[in-house]
Write a structure and sequence with these properties.
Layout: H1 2-14, H2 18-37, H3 41-61, H4 66-74, H5 76-82, H6 89-118, H7 123-150, H8 158-182, H9 191-220
Helix pairs in contact: 1-6, 2-3, 2-6, 3-6, 3-7, 3-8, 6-7, 6-9, 7-8, 7-9, 8-9
């Protein structure tokens, strides 16, 4: 499992520049918001957590279609499926999800405080938003693994992956934004939506690899 994670991290860093593309897309989304709503610093600070979450969500969707596509093209996916008896396919998918999150979503979490400063957010709001992104973005990866596994046999499945998984990631987005706002707005709660988002992450950490493994097995048959 660790060898597969290390291999996918090396491929993700070297091939296609997925990490840099995601960060640049994230930066582009945050940078165009002030042009659309005007130079109102108070408004930017209020909507900052939601904009950071939307930008991170869209950036996380960019490389999901490549999670299994590169392995299918070089034949290594067939080998991973053939080893299903020795190594459960769900465990293999879980390892690939961890590697994908480390190379695509974790860099977004790292740069989010700097982008929060650009949105004129308070330090508490920046810290809360970064924490919610750290806890919530793995759920996007685990959900996306199922869509990527379903679309792996399709020649142009990139857009299909985003369309399929978008309804399932909306609850993660809602609870993440609610928790971020709860950290800075007194009546709004922080703990409850944050724990619900963590529960979603744990739920999809189990269900996502199982569903993706089943989809990969079905596509190979």
């Amino acid at each position: 499992m660790m060898a597969l994670i290390a291999r996918d991290i090396r491929i993700g860093v070297r091939a296609g520049g997925g990490m840099l593309v995601g960060i640049l897309f994230f930066l582009a989304v945050i940078a165009v918001v002030p042009f659309g709503i005007g130079p109102d610093l108070n408004l930017l600070a209020r909507i900052g957590p939601a904009i950071l979450w939307i930008g991170a969500l869209l950036a996380s969707l960019l490389g999901l279609d490549r999670m299994f596509q590169a392995d299918r093209e070089d034949g290594s996916l067939d080998l991973l499926i053939m080893q299903h008896g020795e190594h459960p396919l769900a465990v293999t998918v879980f390892a690939k999800c961890i590697a994908h999150w480390l190379t695509t979503s974790l860099p977004l979490v790292v740069v989010s405080p700097a982008l929060g400063v650009l949105m004129n957010m308070e330090p508490t709001a920046i810290a809360a938003t970064s924490l919610t992104l750290l806890a919530g973005t793995p759920a996007i990866t685990f959900i996306g693994a199922t869509g990527a596994a379903i679309a792996v046999a399709l020649p142009r499945g990139g857009l299909l992956v985003s369309v399929m998984i978008l309804p399932f990631v909306i609850p993660v987005l809602i609870f993440g934004v609610m928790a971020a706002y709860g950290a800075v707005q007194d009546p709004a709660p922080f703990t409850q939506p944050f724990l619900l988002m963590c529960a979603l992450t744990l739920f999809f950490a189990v269900l996502g690899p199982l569903a993706a493994g089943g989809a990969l097995k079905a596509s190979s048959d």
